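User: Can you model how zinc ion sits in this protein?
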Amino acid sequence: MTPWRTLALVVLLGSMPAGIFACRSARRPARSVVLVTIDTLRRDRLSVYGYGRPTTPRIDALAARGAVFLDAWSQAPNTNPSIASALTSRRAPITTVRGNAEKLDPAVPTIARVARDAGWDTAAFVSTVLLRRDASALDGGFDVYDDEMTDPCWGHDRAQRVAGRTIDRALAWLSARDAADGRPFLLWVHLYDPHGPYTAPEPTPELDATAPSLPAAADESTWRGAQRIPRYLRVPALTTPLEYADAYDREIRYADRHLGRLLAALDLATTYVAVHADHGESLGENAYWFRHGTLLHDSALRIPMVVAGPGIGAGRRSSLHVGNLDLAPTLARLAGMPPLPGAEGRDLSPHLLRGDDAAPAWFVAEARRRELVKDDTGIDVRWKLRHTDDAGIDVTWWPAADERRVRGGTPGDVATAMERMRAWLRGPQDAGPSAITPEMENALRGLGYATPAETVTPSSPSSPPSPRRR
Ligand SMILES: [Zn+2]
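Assistant: Here's the modeled complex, given as C-alpha cells:
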C-alpha cells in the first residue's frame, strides 16, 4: 500500500556572526503592529529582491523605509502549518498543525492573544477558506477575525477573497476603531492572490512592457504540458511555462496594488509593518512546475521578509539567516508587548534597531504530503530530514530506514546535525488532523489537496519510528 502519510523536515542552521543578543527585560513603548502574509510569494519574484519586472512597487517602497531580510525561510511549504508557526513561534509538533485544515492547539498562545491580553486591539482579515476559523482555529486572541470568503475558486463559490476586498475590510476596521483612546492595535492581513490558479481579477498593464522569466534552475525540458500540472492550477488560456509565470507575476502585482492602499493608511512613525510569505512556489526547479506544499525544495521555502517602523533604519539589508518563527517574538518586542510564552524563534529587534549580531539558530521546515514518495532517491521518504548550513554541512536523513546521505561536513559536524534532527523529532505526539466539515473537505479537494483522511492511514505511527543503530 502506498504510504499516504508522509512527513519531511529540513533543518537549516544559520551560520551567524559572533555575538549574542543581550537580555533586556524593560518594555519598549507600546506601538501598533501590522503583519501582512502574502500567500505563495516567491522571494525572487519581488522587484526589491532583484526580479526584473516591477511586480511590487509598494512593497519596494516599504522596504526602502525599513529592513529587508535577504535570507529568510519558512518552516513549512504549505499554508496552515507555516502560518500557525509564524503566529506562535512554535514548531509544528507543538502547534499540532502539520497540514491544511488542521487546527492550532488552543493551549499554544499566539501573538494575538498576547497582544489582546496586554490591551491591544486585535483583528485579522484572511483570504482563503483554509484559514477559516473552523478549519484553522487561528481566531483565538483576535477581537475581529474576518474569514468571510466572497470569491469563487477551484469550482467553489466562496473559497477565497481577492485582495481588493480583503484590504477594503481591513481599512474599514482601521477607520472605525476609536484611535482617540490611544490604544495600539495588532492587525494581521493575509492575501491569497499569488496562489494558483493564476487569474488576477484586474488587468495589470504595468507589467506589459516587461517579459517574465523563469528561474535559472528551471529546466524547460521537464515541462510536460499544462495537463500535467495540478487541475486547480490549469488556466485554459495558458499553455507555456512562461505564460504561467507571467500570470503568476500579475497576481503579485495585483496584490501589491491593494496592499499599497493599506500601507498608505499607516503611520510608520508609530506602527511596525512586516510583510512576509507563508511559503514560495516552484517555477520549474526540480521538474516541479507551479506547485508547492509537498517537496522541501528551496523554491518553496525561501520567502521575502520586510520589516519597517520606528527606529528601523531606512534601506537596511540584512543577510542574517532568519525564519518565520522569528517574526512573532520580534514584533512583540518591537511593539512593547510582553514576550511570547515559549517562543522558539529569536527576537531580532536588537538587530533591526541597532544592527546587533544574532546568536546562531537553527530552523525547521516540515511537510506531510503523499507526493514525497515520488522523491527520486528511491528511499522510503515518509519521513525526511535535511540539515544544511553555511559551513558546508549537508545531511539528508530518512529516519524510517535510518538512511542518510552526507554531502559535506566533518564527522563531528554531522553528529551535531543528526542530534539536532533527533531533538526536533522528540516533540509531543502528533494528534493527527482535526475533524473537518464536508464543505471544507470539498474545498480542499477542489484545491487539489488531499484531505486529512487521505493523508493519514490508521496504521500510521503517531510519531516517526526510532532510527536503528548502525
Ligand atoms: Zn500558502
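A couple of observations from the model: The pocket of zinc ion is lined by residues 39-40, 78-79, 195, 278-279 (CB under 6 Å). The chain has one domain: 30-364.
User: Helpful, thanks.
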